[in-house]
Amino acid sequence: MSLEGSLVISSLIDAQIMVYAQVAMLALLTYDYILSLGQEVAYIWASNWGSVKVLYFFSRYSPFIDTILAIEEKLNHRVDSASCNRTMTFNTVFTSLGIGISDLILIVRTYAMYQRSRTVLIILLVLWVAVLAVGVVAASRWSTSDTVAFSESITLSGGSSCFLIGENKAGVVSYISLLLAETVLVMFTVWNGFRESQSYPQHGFFGATQSVLITFYRDAITLGNVLVTAYAPLIIHVREVANLPDDQTRDLSALFFGTNNSSSETPEV
């Protein structure tokens, strides 16, 4: 198999793994939704309508929209490059908006934890505006960059789908700024928890956070088991393909490139 053919096969396998990952993320999102639905019904549905409640519902349900669209983009075998770019642009903007609103909710929560301190609110809002500006610029450059484009490709299972043919590093800048901002929010939360624990000396800091730790480890272990069960067969299959003799790999790659169109020729790799 030629070097170019190996790179094509590797790219297609990576694209197929992305589909599996997106489906897994949708399953985990649904799992998280079911876990917290009872608390949502008890504390949110019966509350009075306001700006925070609207932001909450958008943040709560909008991830289902862009995640389902991302999966449909990969599984739709009648998609063209223009549709790929439209869907990716929408998902980029919509996801960025959802993240911004989620962080705004965290800011409101932190503001309430600090007894509506105006100093804390100003610090967090300035931080949020700065991250929002960086995110908007990065998303704009990413969506309009010539190095990022999608084309129709032949999938491993046949048919065509969206295939990324370029990349751009602008998203890394947005991710780093978001990571720093959320680290600041976590530090505010931890400090407030430590401060509040002084009011309950009989429990102390670790006693006050015991229920949080129990919930964290319970959910983390459950999600870990789900991920291992979902990805183990895929990893084993990829390793089996990598260890096949060259002649069998050639036949397998030809099978991967097969399409639903009986008149098309199978490309030689």
UniProtKB/TrEMBL annotation:
Q: Which InterPro entries match?
A: DUF6533
Q: Which UniProt keywords apply?
A: Membrane, Transmembrane, Transmembrane helix
Query: Is the keyword Transmembrane in the record?
Result: yes
Q: Name one Pfam family in it.
A: DUF6533
Look up keyword Phosphoprotein and say if it applies: no
Q: Which ranges carry the DUF6533 domain?
A: 20-65
List membrane-spanning regions. 6-29, 88-108, 120-142, 173-194
Q: Would you tell me the protein name for this molecule?
A: DUF6533 domain-containing protein
